[in-house]
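Blinded run. Sample ID left blank on purpose so nobody reads anything into the name before looking at the predicted structure. Input follows.
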Amino acid sequence: MKRLLFLILFSTSLTLYAQVVNFPKTLPQRAWSVGLSPAYHIDRDVVVFDAGGASVALNGGYGILYSLDVNARYMYFFNGADYIGIDAQYLIYETRKSYVSAIAGLHYWDVFGFDLSGFYTYSPRYEFSFSVGLDMDLSFAEDINPRFWIPLNVGYILNEMMFLYAEYNLPVSDLSWGIVALGINVILR
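Blinded prediction complete.
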């Protein structure tokens, strides 16, 4: 019961705008994760975007089932409002070297929003992974603002406990912007 209460408190206090960190696979069952991710948001003169530039995110997660985990993130923007959100990731399909997963979540960044993403990951070797997907964000301001990205992620698993990654979110709609992120995620079993 204490772990469940901690998870709820931790989750509600911590996801990243446009899901900057796109992990290829769900966490192992009953495993925790903690991560740190500096990112740079490339402003393309997006309307009502005053938080371009550098940010730092703290994220955490918990593996509920083999195919389901929950994640939470807090992002500090150096030039604007902070971002807070939660999401759930579901592993839809898995083979020995590839995965298909979906992520859905809610966030608050001056206004409430909804995130939805789908990813395909290929792992030529156990420790390396390459992911591509489609990421959608809806912000519920006066007008609903849909934003779309194509996340490209390269990851490396170090000694079963650490996941190092680099990611670029390619903007594919007028209201989205480029995002470059590096980071580390530590798995605690």
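Unblinding after everyone has recorded impressions. The first strand starts at residue 32 and ends at 42.
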